[in-house]
């Protein structure tokens, strides 16, 4: 696989983006949704901010208060035996293994570019937590353009779990909220850009507790707001790069040979790669072909090192002819882009 | 609370029902969906069958094969360290704590009665596992009558998780399948019997893994098949009878004071009781009132002892004037019924 990483990588880093919250620092500008709007490429960045540390023995958790619209900061001593602080992203409940708080608050911010390499980041959030299902933040947006409307959907995180919420816009200025479209635990939703046999389809990634694994499902809808006929689509593979967890990545790409989904897979030790799966053009519940090897793995320094290293994680790509410009978050820290050939990806798959 | 348990309780026991599978025994006839059809009360029983044991050192797991339509039996030695056999209902993966197999296979069978106390159980299954999302069985049905159609929905259990599937019937003979309406992990769905402000509503009970608890959510729909606008509705209460897990029970009952939901709550040590919550008549996402104490707790011998004791678990009730005939599964074994006064339940609630 020929992968051309931009010389400008990483394209956007936390240092490029001033914090929105006073007394906070930006620790991540990553996992951006991607689309074209007028003559620009838009990256809808996930911006993660955390309170600046004032005591190394204290871990702080920012929490949005939907009644006041303000962010409150909870503090935890690192020697508090009720919690486990070993994962820098979360404060875990030591007895249940579930997370109790996040160490940063994420929201969505627009970056614009004419050449796809140099971006200008807007000063203010474009989508910000707005209700009690988003008090721990909103994360990992994807953007599907249908007719003249951009549907933007993202993980909504709260003490009640992680689900997927949706908003829409026509102009990247006015936003309409549509509530939570997939209940917890679910993320990595990807809405197909057109109806197939009269129905909308979406990939989604539930994380069940009692049994089952973080794997990819598909659902259908007639209005993009209400979803049903859930079917299991794609599972983990033991002893492969995608043995730990998988989830959809970029918005499905329509090709002659089927719907191409660029998805992420992580090994059991949390190394995140990108791979591809091909779904039937007329029935996307059917898997036609799949990557044996990743199409992109964390190799560059900015991919292996960062807040949470060894992660490449795409939430969207721009396709121009045979060229796939895959934008992707690196190390839960920054944004990068790599170009791949669509034909080469399709030819690399193992067909069933 | 005045609770009148029928003298005939338990109304239906495993001894009353011959097994459908050769070489199997019926171990549960419980958690039945309830409705009136013509001049009869119908209990749609969850019937649990397991292979008759031939070796006390072996635990058997029945699994439906959707390709052959037959049930296959997997065998596990009780000294296999990869598994934990301490819960009689499941074979747990010792390392993950998730279940790997169930020890019985459940399906749905009709019982009919003219007086609500004496039931005749049909010879054959009415709804039986039919696809790969149901290979471990189907469980805990509820029935909502809307216009002339009975919507029957139930837990569908497979290695991919536990979700909620739906079928419908007009005559309790012909069945139409509608697929999975809530993706894993979810169960205890309750569809309201009429539209409210132009939308259908359903309670559901996701079980998220990374954070959150088994609590009650509400969703809306315009066609009963596709669901969205998920909202968190009702949570656990520390140090109360419903501190461990809660889920909807009977189909919501329309009253002058609001929608009355009879729900189950379990303590952290798995004692299952029934309580009640009242939702706004015109906006069921609003909680008006809730039981401080259970309206029914496991006290009778048939409720405290059985395959999984200390469980009362209702999936439906018949309301006649001020009388609530609450049918309920007992000890994951049999069916029982108790009569309560609707007015007394409503007056017992704590209003917010």
Automatic annotation (TrEMBL), chains A, B:
Keyword match Transferase? yes
Q: Which GO terms describe its molecular function?
A: glycosyltransferase activity; hydrolase activity
Q: Which organism is it from?
A: Saccharococcus thermophilus
Report the protein name in the record.
Putative GH43/DUF377 family glycosyl hydrolase
- Give the SUPFAM superfamilies listed for this entry: Arabinanase/levansucrase/invertase
Query: According to its UniProt record, which protein family does this protein belong to?
Result: Belongs to the glycosyl hydrolase 130 family.
InterPro entries, alphabetized: Glyco_hydro_beta-prop_sf, Mannoside_phosphorylase
The answer to keyword Hydrolase applying to this record is yes
Keyword annotations for this protein, in alphabetical order, are: Glycosyltransferase, Hydrolase, Transferase
* Domain of life where this protein originates: Bacteria
Which Pfam families did the record assign? Answer: Glyco_hydro_130
């Amino acid at each position: 696989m020929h992968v051309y990483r931009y010389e400008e990588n990483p394209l956007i880093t936390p240092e490029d983006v001033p914090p929105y919250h006073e007394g906070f620092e930006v620790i991540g500008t990553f996992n951006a949704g991607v689309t074209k709007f007028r003559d620009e490429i838009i990256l809808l960045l996930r911006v993660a901010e955390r309170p600046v540390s004032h005591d190394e023995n204290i871990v702080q958790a920012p929490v949005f208060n939907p009644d006041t619209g303000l962010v409150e900061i909870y503090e935890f001593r690192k020697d508090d035996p009720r919690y486990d602080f070993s994962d820098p992203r979360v404060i875990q409940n030591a007895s249940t293994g579930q997370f109790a708080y996040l160490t940063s608050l994420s929201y969505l911010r627009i970056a614009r570019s004419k050449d796809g390499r140099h971006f200008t980041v807007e000063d203010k959030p474009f989508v910000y937590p707005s209700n009690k299902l988003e008090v721990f933040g909103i994360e990992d947006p994807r953007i599907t353009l249908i007719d003249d409307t951009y549907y933007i959907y993202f993980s909504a995180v709260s003490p009640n779990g992680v689900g997927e919420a949706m908003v829409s816009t026509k102009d990247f200025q006015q936003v309409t909220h549509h509530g939570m479209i997939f209940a917890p635990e679910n993320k990595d939703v990807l809405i197909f850009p057109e109806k197939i046999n009269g129905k909308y389809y979406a990939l989604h990634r539930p994380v069940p507790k009692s049994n089952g694994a973080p794997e990819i499902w598909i659902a259908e809808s007639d209005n993009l707001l209400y979803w049903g006929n859930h079917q299991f689509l794609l599972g983990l593979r033991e002893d492969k790069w995608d043995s730990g967890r998988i989830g959809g990545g970029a918005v499905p790409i329509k090709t002659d040979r089927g719907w191409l989904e660029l998805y992420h897979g992580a090994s059991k030790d949390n190394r995140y790669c990108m791979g591809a799966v091909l779904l039937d053009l007329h029935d996307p519940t059917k898997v036609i072909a799949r990557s044996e090897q990743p199409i992109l793995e964390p190799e560059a320094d900015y991919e292996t090192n960062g807040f949470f290293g060894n992660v490449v994680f795409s939430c969207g790509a721009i396709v121009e002819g045979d060229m796939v410009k895959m934008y992707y978050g690196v190390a839960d820290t920054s944004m990068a882009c790599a170009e791949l050939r669509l034909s080469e990806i399709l030819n690399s798959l193992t067909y069933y």
